[in-house]
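Support request from a user on the community tier.

User writes: "When I paste my structure tokens into the form, the page sometimes reloads and wipes my input. The last time it worked, I copied everything first. Here is what I submitted, just in case something in the input itself triggers the reload:"
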């Protein structure tokens, strides 16, 4: 009947927590999206279900409302740019650079700024 350690509840939240969690979540979401699309095209080809890019494009233009289109594009664009930028941040750390608290915070803020600029750029192309 020993008490459970308060672990996360006693510490002040930091940018590293949020970016680490978001990096993992974005990787899972992007990976699952890629897997579903790839498997859908593969299964359709094997069983002759007729899923191809032309049919998908026509369905998308006819059935998907503009608000849903913008939401999906924004989600993909911002998650992709964030995941890529944070991956580069980790590679910088692997080289032994920016490992101080100041460096970690500086690179975290740089990733967020890059995400805002790059995600917006991809969204409106």
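"...and here is what came back when it finally went through:"
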């Amino acid at each position: 009947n020993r008490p459970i350690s308060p672990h996360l509840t006693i510490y002040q939240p930091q940018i590293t927590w949020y970016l680490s969690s978001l990096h993992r979540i974005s990787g899972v979401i992007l990976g699952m999206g890629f897997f579903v699309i790839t498997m859908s095209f593969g299964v359709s080809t094997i069983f002759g279900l007729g899923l191809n890019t032309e049919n998908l494009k026509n369905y998308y233009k006819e059935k998907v409302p503009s608000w849903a289109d913008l939401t999906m594009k924004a989600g993909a664009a911002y998650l992709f740019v964030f995941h890529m930028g944070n991956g580069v941040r980790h590679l910088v750390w692997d080289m032994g650079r920016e490992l101080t608290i100041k460096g970690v915070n500086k690179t975290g803020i740089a990733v967020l700024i890059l995400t805002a600029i790059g995600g917006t750029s991809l969204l409106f192309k």
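Agent notes: The reload is a front-end session timeout and is unrelated to the input. Residues 25 and 31 are 10 Å apart (CA to CA). Helices lie at 15-47, 53-63, 66-94, 101-123. Escalated to web team.
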